[in-house]
Automatic annotation (TrEMBL):
It comes from Dyadobacter fermentans. The keyword Transmembrane helix applies. This is Glycosyltransferase involved in cell wall biosynthesis. InterPro entries: Glyco_trans_2-like (IPR001173), Nucleotide-diphossugar_trans (IPR029044). It comes from the Bacteria.
Length: 376
């Protein structure tokens, strides 16, 4: 029994360490220096909003003050009834780079956000599209510059990082942990030529890529997926890169209660069934190994305590010790690159919290009905 537990545990730990050493090292040792001297093509920033007046009052001045030679910001107001239209029309003449498009129509065959983004893509006057959300805040006035600095003739897609603001409470801590670890995965996989997602809060691509793919046509009816399903379709091993300069970060306002966060995560996870088989396998193996490692570790600990097998407990400590040492070494390096999103001393707790998260949402994904539809 003891030998079987250790062999199984060692196998799953080996799977996890493979991801850390083959994938995550790419991000840990990735050079951050962007070439701001590159040619600066015209950029259209697209912001979709539904009843976001309060957020727009803060975001619009930040976007209008971007230090970039040629850009526009298109505000796509989807049927808002909270005074957003009145606010924008009252102030728009005082903004230099803001355009406003009011969307009054809604269609059964396409979700509201994807329709709004499609309208924005068609109305844009520049070849580069840069997306963010109304509840986001660029880290600097060089956000557009930092993102476009990674665009080349071959690199048509740039994935940025969008952390959440630090606030008090366990929920905020866990949201930051989950966002950080998700970024570690999608940024590392992109560097390995296996892009599977980005975040719509901070993503850039050439409009030609959008239209060559017929936009969101294949998943226009799916709530969500304007970033990850789309990237599953258009990203290749050579056309996508990342930007992790501090100027390129876009901070977001996190959910403040568990119910809203739970609903958001279910919606995000629900679209993963549209991923390419390769991406499903890679992500499934990583999360599955995480779950199995903790389950087997706890079972081995219990068995060792019950049987008073001190040698078994020593081996268990060695296995987890090696695992945590490699994790901490790489995650601390990456965390510094990503603005110290998570407190380094909480990585052990984060490791266990993610185990619970994967276990719960893995079960819900397999057993529950489709999540409630909401604007996205």
């Amino acid at each position: 029994m003891a030998d079987s537990l250790l062999y199984a545990l060692g196998a799953f730990v080996a799977v996890q360490l493979f991801y850390y050493l083959f994938f995550f090292t790419r991000l840990a040792f990735y050079g951050k220096g962007a070439n701001y001297g590159n040619a600066m093509p015209g950029v259209t920033v697209l912001v979709c909003a539904w009843n976001e007046k309060e957020n727009l009052t803060e975001l619009i001045p930040l976007l209008d003050a971007q230090e970039y030679p040629e850009y526009e910001v298109i505000l796509l107001d989807d049927r808002s009834d909270d005074g957003s239209e009145e606010f924008i029309r009252e102030h728009i003449n005082g903004w230099k780079n803001i355009r406003y498009i009011r969307i009054n129509d809604q269609f059964d065959h396409v979700t509201p956000k994807k329709y709004a983004l499609t309208v924005g893509m068609k109305q844009a006057k520049y070849p580069i599209a840069l997306m963010t959300d109304a509840d986001c805040r660029p880290a600097s006035s060089h956000w557009i510059t930092a993102m476009t600095s990674r665009v080349t003739e071959d690199k048509n897609i740039v994935l940025g990082f969008s952390p959440y603001f630090k606030q008090k409470g366990f929920l905020n801590w866990f949201i930051r942990c989950e966002t950080f670890y998700a970024a570690v995965q999608y940024l590392s996989f992109t560097l390995a030529g296996m892009t599977y997602m980005g975040v719509g809060r901070n993503i850039l691509y050439k409009r030609s890529v959008f239209f060559a793919n017929k936009g969101f046509y294949t998943h226009k009816h799916v709530f969500g997926g304007d970033d990850d399903i789309f990237l599953n379709e258009v990203a290749t091993s050579s056309n996508t890169t990342i930007s992790i300069e501090e100027d390129s970060f876009v901070y977001s306002l996190p959910k403040t209660n568990w119910k809203d966060w739970f609903r958001q995560k279910r919606r995000h996870i629900s679209v993963s069934r549209y991923y390419k088989p390769r991406n499903k396998i890679l992500l499934g193996m990583l999360s599955g190994a995480h779950i199995a490692t903790w389950l087997l570790g706890l079972l081995t600990l219990a068995w060792g305590l019950i049987t008073k097998d001190m040698l078994l407990l020593q081996y268990l400590g060695i296995v987890f010790g090696v695992r945590w040492a490699i994790q901490w070494f790489l995650l601390i390096i990456i965390n510094v690159k990503l603005d110290k999103t998570v407190e380094w001393f909480s990585f052990l707790l984060m490791d266990f919290a993610l185990f619970v998260y994967y276990l719960v949402f893995g079960f819900l994904t397999m057993t529950s009905r489709k999540p409630r539809k909401s604007w996205n």
